[in-house]
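Annex B. Sample input.
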Amino acid sequence: MTQRKLEGRKALVSGGASGIGEATARLFAAEGANVMIADIDDAGGERVVREIVAAGGKAQYRHVDVTDRAAVRKMVHDAEAALGGLGILFNNAMTNPSSDYSEDQRWNLMLESGLGAYWAAAMEAAPILARSGHGAIVSNASIAGARWGIEFASEAYSAAKAGVLGLSRKLAKRFGPDGVRSNAICPGIIETPRWRSPGAEEPLFARRYRQMAPLQRFGRTEEVAKLVLFFASDDSSFITGQDIAIDGGFTTAARFESVDFNAP
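Annex B, continued. Sample output.
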């Protein structure tokens, strides 16, 4: 029987109630990890936990608001206590401000949830991860800001995601001697309700993105989860301070010539 990649390990996944976080929590559990899902969406998080447990996995849920740094730090220690240790941190949650927020409010909220919270969680978790003997921090960046200036990504979102790369490299340098690795993922457009509700018309920006990507499609959450698993497991035991774009080739080989930019 093949050994599961995360057998007996303890993992904390922020934003695990939906999308990439949900897919990652499910995959971690399937690979033998005991997972704590942290999210502000209680109904979604509890649903994911029930389904993981029903499938034979181990998972718990904890409510957390990642705009509150004290709550983020407490989340880390609650995970350690509930799971009996912590070896993996997936920084994934980010608040999406409503349309009635001012630019200042949007900036503050997105930088706090998408960068400040990542820093707070990583700094709090690093000593705990080091004690596990296989500590791994994986942070969710994006091709927006981190790799590419994209029209549909706000300045706040782009700045936060670009900052995640700098943070990930600094964490790799600081905590590498303790045996803790730090890497980042940079997804392109992934098929989640955040981009398009099932059955809804494809937005113009999304259609153009798909046409320009060499693979000619959007990514799937389970595909991103496999990259997170790679960085969290011993498969990447000699990799730290790196980031990988998972975007169908968009940022390296965009097919601009295949798009009619005058088309509605």
